[in-house]
Amino acid sequence: MDAFDVAVIGAGAIGTSVAYHLCEKGLSVALIDRGDIACGSSSHCDAVALICDKQPGIDTVMGQASIDLYGELSKRFEYDFEYDPKGCLYVCETDAEYEAAEKYVSEQVANGCDMRMAGNEELCEMEPYIAKDLKGGIYTPGTGAIAVSPYKVCYAFVEEAKKLNLRVYTYCKIRKILLNEKTNAVEGIETDQGIIRSNKVINCAGAWAPDVGEMAGLEIPIQPRKGMNLVSEQTERICFHKILEFGYMMSKFDNINFKRNVSPLVEEYNVAFNIEYTKANNLLVGGYRGFRGFDIRSEIEAMKAISERALRFFPCLKDIKCIRSYAGVRPFVKDHLPIVSDVDSVPGFYIAAGHEGDGICFSPITGKLMAQIVTGEETDFDISRLDYARFAG
Ligand SMILES: Cc1cc2nc3c(=O)[nH]c(=O)nc-3n(C[C@H](O)[C@H](O)[C@H](O)COP(=O)(O)OP(=O)(O)OC[C@H]3O[C@@H](n4cnc5c(N)ncnc54)[C@H](O)[C@@H]3O)c2cc1C
Question: How far is the CA of 236 from the centre of ligand 1 (A)?
Fold first, then answer.
C-alpha cells in the first residue's frame, strides 16, 4: 500500500501545479489521473495568460500574480514551457466598444495594471494586417499578457516535482474516496492500482470535479462550457500579439451589456474573435462558448461562425488554409471564479477547480495558494471569495 502526505486528483494545469507547489513545501505527493498528464482541458485550449480579460478585483489580482510567477518559473525550471511575453491587443469595432474599453482600462490602471488605450493609427502600426476601420483597442504589454505551451506547463510542473517527492499514477481509475466512518475525514483513495493512503486529497479534476466531489458526498457546481479553435497551416507572421475583439468580454461574462453588429450565426454560437500564433507559426483562431455537455466534437456551424468573425478582423485570412479544428471544455462556475478551498464537512478534502477560461493563466498561483492552504500558512492575498462555502444554502 502506498502512503503520501497529499494525493492530488487530476494532472491538468491545476493539479500539476498544486502537486509541484506541495512538493516544494517538502511534502510527499501522489498525482493521479485516469488518463495521461494533460489529457483533459489543458491540451484542448489556447495558450495565453492575460490580465486584460479579467474582471477588476480578485480575478485580476490572481491573473497578475500568476503571470509574474510564470516569469519566475521560466527562469528557474529546466523544462522549457515556451514562455513568451507577447503582449495583447483587445480591439474595438465601434465607438460604444471603445468607450466601454476606456472605462475598463481606467479602472484597471487605477488598480495598478499595466495597460493603455491605443488608437486606430497605432493599432494599424502594431498590426499591419488588421482591418483598417477599427476604432483602436486596449494594449497590454508582456508584463500582463504572456503565452505558454499549456501541456508543456503540465509536464514542466511534473518533471520539476519529480526531482522533489512526486509519484505519478497515470491511467489510474479512482473507485472511491475513503472517509472515516465517524469523523468523515479523508483517509485515502481506492483505485484500480490499489489503495493510496493519505489524509489529504485535493480535487483538481477540472470540469469533472463534480464526479470526484460526489465520491466525497459533495455537490460541486461546475459545468463544462465548450470552446473551439481553428488551426491554420504554417504561415508568415500576420499577427504579432494575442488579439481579441472587445466582444470577447461579453461572450465570457454576462454583465457587459451592449449589442455587437454580428450575424445571427455568430450570435447563436456566442463567437468572439481571438487569434494567436504558435511557436511553430500556425495560427490558433477562436473562439466560441457553448453548453454542450462533454461533447467535444467540432461543430461545422461554429467553425463557419469563427471564420466569419476572423475574416472581419483579418481579411488576409481568406488566403490561409485551415488544417484542423479542436474543441475542449472549460470548467465553468456561475460567478466566474474558481473554487480554491478546503471543505468543512469533509476534513482533509480540498478543491482547486472551476477555472473556466483561465486555468492556464491561473495555474501557477492556484498551486501556490493551495499549498499555502494545505500547510496552514497565510495565503498571499485574501481568497475568501474562492471558498467552496460560498455555495452553501
Ligand atoms: C478552446 C479553449 C481555449 C482556452 N483558452 C485558454 C487560455 O488561453 N488561457 C487560459 O488560461 N485558459 C484557457 N482555457 C481554459 C483552460 O483550458 C482550463 O481552464 C484548464 O485547462 C483547466 O485545467 P484543469 O487542470 O482544472 O482541468 P483539466 O486540464 O481538464 O484537468 C483535469 C484532469 O482531471 C482528470 N480527471 C477527471 N476525472 C478524473 C477521475 N475521476 N479520476 C482521475 N482523474 C480524473 C482528467 O483526466 C484531467 O486530466 C481554454 C479552454 C478551451 C476549451
Answer: 30
